[in-house]
Design goal:
alpha+beta; 2 domains; rod-shaped; transmembrane helix; membrane
Length: 141
């Protein structure tokens, strides 16, 4: 008698292999699709990181309101709150991130790394790069 079997197990193995191949092809197609979607859409400026000079020029063009803080260094902790009241932001911000506030109330601001931020108060630049870490100041409306 022969040792060859002709039962559904052989067909099941073939279906499992075919299913694995279909799954692999589907994952490759989806990966390519999402990679394509993550690329910039024809805007050459969106793919190029900004230098500090370019960011400073753009910050001057942005409506800065009462307070504008942009991180131009590696990172900095930023805490902005209404004295004795609401915390408006308390975050570790990275390079290129910014916050802006247009408040009619005084603001208490604490900057973790003053040398890593550009700061505008009422549209005027304020240099705090020489201050100690954890520098705190108040912005009047």
């Amino acid at each position: 008698m022969g040792r060859h079997r002709n039962d559904p197990r052989g067909i099941g193995q073939m279906l499992a292999i075919a299913g694995a191949i279909v799954l692999f092809i589907t994952l490759v197609i989806l990966g390519g699709y999402f990679l394509y979607r993550s690329l910039p859409a024809g805007n050459p400026d969106s793919a190029v990181p900004e230098s500090a000079d370019t960011a400073a020029a753009q910050a001057g063009e942005v409506t800065t309101g009462t307070l504008y803080i942009e991180v131009v260094g590696e990172s900095s902790d930023v805490l902005v709150r209404v004295p004795g009241g609401d915390v408006l932001t308390d975050a570790a911000m990275g390079r290129g991130e910014y916050v802006t506030f247009d408040e009619s109330r005084p603001l208490s601001v604490t900057i973790g790394d003053p040398s890593a931020v550009e700061l505008y108060v009422h549209g005027e630049p304020r240099d705090i790069s020489g201050e100690e870490p954890g520098h705190t100041f108040t912005v009047e409306p």
